Give the backbone structure.
Amino acid sequence: MPDERHGRTDVEQLQDQVTELFVQFRQEQLTADSADPAGTARRRLRAAADIRRAWRAVEPDLSAAIAFVGADGLLSAAEVAGELDVSVSYVQEVLREFMLFSWRVDVLDGPPGPGWQTWSYGQGITGRPDAALAEYGDEQLADATRKRTEALRVLVWEGHDTADEDAVHRAQRPAR
């Protein structure tokens, strides 16, 4: 999300912070106190740990961004890697491990009229595609059941939602 004061995204600001930590790490390396090599080594490791923590903070968002782009199929893994300045193998690994899914809960004969009407929908990222899609769909149906009395159904797709018949998971609950 852009920072209104500086027109920079959170990722760009984090990148600046990581770069600053790396520069500081490198300067400490160059000006290490030879009288205390163990202390210098500890400072270097602490600086490296700071850099690693900064990366861990942004890595889940980066994986989600890669999975969303991968679902669209508009860019190759090499193009995604180039845009993010990461390796192609890293992008390919994320695409193997994470998947975009879409879901929709429909209400039967509720507002605004007869037939199945969309009540809620969304998208997410999962690292366990086989089990997670059905589980997530069932959770959405259970949540809707607490709020609605009409007949309900939930549909879940791998990737973006498409035709109802293409859903990989579907569940239904009769009216109460």
Summary: Residues 1 and 7 are 9 Å apart (CA to CA). The first helix runs from residue 10 to 30. The chain has five helices and six strands.
